[in-house]
Amino acid sequence: MFASLKHVLRVHRHRARDAVSGRKRIIAVLEQLKASHELLSVSVAGCQTAATSAILSVSDDRNCFMLDELSVPELHRRFLEQRKAVVRGRLHGMELRFACRLLSAGTEGGIALYEVAIPARVQSVQRRAHFRLPLIPDLAVPVNVPRLQGKRVAGQAFDLSAGGIGALLQTRSIPSRGEIVSGWSIALPQSGPLSANVEVRFARLDATRHSLRLGGRFVGLDRKQERKLALFLAETQRKRRRFEPR
User: Fold this and answer.
1) I need a labelling partner for 120 at 20 to 30 A (CA). Which of 51, 150, 222, 240 fits?
2) pLDDT per residue over 223-240, tens digit each?
3) Which CATH superfamily is domain 2-127 in?
4) How far apart, in whole angstroms, are the C-alpha atoms of residue 50 and residue 136?
């Protein structure tokens, strides 16, 4: 499935934009967004603030998908009124964007849920600059953040690249998109700790793991830290290839 999705999401380097069309391909993209627990940004006309959400399920038969609660009350209200929104997210190096149409809304356990029609087109906006190395479940990379919303926080990285990090942090505090969180210590196995500042690109509470799911990009890594990270990524990939079936 991963190989087919890579084909679906392929973008030629000379093109700034491309689009995924065709119902089966779009459903494949939505399924992968769900399976990867990717955080989505949802915006509605008239609201200056976007809200975060995630895809909970995809129904081929009903031609719809379920979107998790929008935590911004004003945006929730306007979505119910206007019945349309714009969704943005990331998947396999792409920045995705699509318009969605609300079919119905309800609640489950006091949490709002939205039934949304499968979009006719998904716009791909940007290619990821760096290869992302998944870490969980086979490689533990602990992280410590000395000050996040005023508190020291520990956690574990779930992916890593030369440009940034994804981590599950043991906190319920949610930093703002664009906030710079200083002083991360990332314990790279056999490589020693990596010190970094991270700009928050997305942050969402993960109810399944009872933690904060955060993704960000590194800011101002010096050459020594860049080299340490590059060597760790290269060595980890080399070791994994050795055990891949031939």
Assistant:
1) 51
2) 899 889 988 888 888 777
3) Electron Transport, Fmn-binding Protein; Chain A (2.30.110.10)
4) 29
Between CA 7 and CA 53 the distance in angstroms is 26
pLDDT in tens, 16-59: 457 888 889 999 999 989 887 777 889 999 888 888 889 999 99
In angstroms, the CA 242 to CA 224 distance is 27
Report how far apart, in Å, the C-alpha atoms of 228 and of each of 40, 134, 145 are.
Answer: 31, 18, 19
Looking at domain 133-242, does it have CATH number 3.10.150.10? no
* Predicted confidence (pLDDT) per residue in 85-128, tens digit: 999 887 766 788 999 999 999 998 888 999 999 999 999 865 44
Residue 215 phi, psi (nearest 5): -125, 140
Distance CA 210, CA 216 (A): 19
CB atoms within 10 A of CB 115: 16
Residues constituting the chain: 246
pTM value is: 0.52
Please tell me the distance from the alpha carbon of residue 223 to that of residue 221, in angstroms, as a whole number: 7
CB within 8 Å of 119: residues ≥ 6 apart = 26, 98, 99, 100, 101
